[in-house]
Structure formats: C-alpha cells, structure tokens
Task: structure prediction
Amino acid sequence: MEHITSEFNRSEALTTMDDLKMGDIFESKVKMLQVITEWSIACGVSFMHVKTNRTLYTTFCASIIEGDNVGRDVCLWRMHASVSKGSGGYFKIKSYT
Result:
C-alpha cells in the first residue's frame, strides 16, 4: 500500500500542458480533460471519447486530413486513464499507444 500512495505524490500531478505519456498523473478527471484539450489544440488534433465514467476515461485520435486526402488518418493514438486504489482519486494514464 505504501508503494501505491507514494506513486501518487501530489507534487507529481500534471497541472500544465506537457507532452502526454503513459504514467502521467492528474489530480482530477476535470484537470486531465483540460490538459488533454489544451494538448490537442496545440498539436492540431481532435479526439473522441470512447468510454468515460467516474473512474475511467478512454479516448482516441479523430483527426483526418482534409482536401485531396479526405478520410486519411493523421494520427492513430489511443489513451486510457483510470483511478487506481490508494490514489486519492487521482487519474493516471495507464496506456497511450
């Protein structure tokens, strides 16, 4: 239990837009969605929610090339985050591919 608690050190939670990566921790789902939205705007990509509830969030890239290549995917990433036991409600990115 001590390992899980130290893993979710409040000082490690992202509070500004950074490059998203597996293992990133957010103090709340609202904060995580804010960072993801800012990141997607800065990177020029759109995303769609696949599954979301109180303790789980899954999204994927939904951007396509416009013009001559309509319908061609720009990006193929998928991200899954959830609250872990002992985290105090913090969301952690569990997979990002």
Observations:
- The two ends are 28 Å apart (CA to CA).
- The helical segments are 2-7, 29-43.
- The chain has a mean pLDDT of 75.
- Strands lie at 25-26, 47-52, 56-61, 78-83, 91-96.
